[in-house]
Amino acid sequence: MRTRAQLFRYAGLEVTADSLTGHFELDKDQFTETVTFEGVGSLETPAIVAISQLWYLLAGLSYYKAGAARTIDVGATPLGEKGATLLRAALHDGLGEFAFRNDMPLDDVVIEGGTATQRYEPLIDPHRVLIPFGGGIDSVVTVAELAGHVDRSLFVVSPGSGRFLPLEETANVTGLGVVRATRRLDPRIVRVDDSFFAGHVPVTAMVTLLGAVAALASGRGGVAMSNEHSSSAPNLRWLDRDVNHQWSKSWEAELLIAEAIAERVGDEFVVASFLRDRSELWVAQTFSHHVRYHHVFRSCNRAFAQIRELRAANWCGKCDKCLFVNLILAPFLARPALRDIFSSEPLSDPARREQLRILVGIGLDHKPFECVGDPDESAVALARVSQMDEWANVEWLGELARLASPDRDFDELLTPQGPSRAPAHWVR
User: Rounded to an integer, what distance in angstroms lies between the CA atom of residue 230 and that of residue 334?
Assistant: First the structure.
């Protein structure tokens, strides 16, 4: 039986010209993670070290979760007021799904240590932007739609086990340069020890901060993320706290990360989501026009397993992500074209019917712990698909559409949704 650890300690961050190495201790266990960068200048300047320390604080949660220690000691790591706020939120909200799945509230965790931060003023060009790129529908749209007069490059994070082929193929289609980071997790976390707790961590927040490191180390003035509006929608409510699988993509996380970065390097450096005020339906409509990406992009997470032999070669057609992407593209792409992309048809697969019910908000089950839109978006997409002649032979799509009750309509979801921090010069 797993038992909670007593102490998780940040044992030190090493910064070299091209790498970050974080050391962590969980009671008597020791862990090390190294990230090596390509295509940037030296990481050893004070401003870049300061942002690297923010990454280090969040990266530690990948190892903290193994024991869910009751005390976290950040040691001599510069923390600062905004950094402390970000770390607490990443612990309680970024690990919210982890806590829920393990039925283990983390409200009793005490964070100790930390020193004051200093502010630096790096030399940056606001018209040079780095775009974290995952090869899926959202980051493709950001690349395609970000203003053409802005100098764009991709930021790709690869695992130590080897690059992700679908991501690389999609990146090649963009024709843009690539700044790369290779992330080598401690092998005991990748191949989970049965004595460790397991679960979801706020990985997008970690990637965001690595993107900030890479951008600053190459004189760029911004990091353009691809997190759309519904990533802020929680999956469920548990013990008086929202649980959101996509917390690290949320508006709240964006604000906290931006404030923690500004505390260290000022607010001229911009980290924001280009898609923040857009629905997944808008993203799908926009993506439908960029035909050259249709046969290379991949949003199915089974292609991106850390362990190489577990990676799927194609869209699996069975997971919630495959079903959701199939659903939101269906109003905008002809059915044969959609089938050609996926090499299957999740929407007409009877085995996916219950998953679709949950996606559109029917029944008692919560939204899947996946990067999918909120039930309104799914229900609105389904209503439109059920009215299309080419889907008329899938009768149960209409049956489910009639049972769903979205609060918004199709046209409304194609208009801006809520606030955005994307600066004006990013917009066409």
Answer: 25
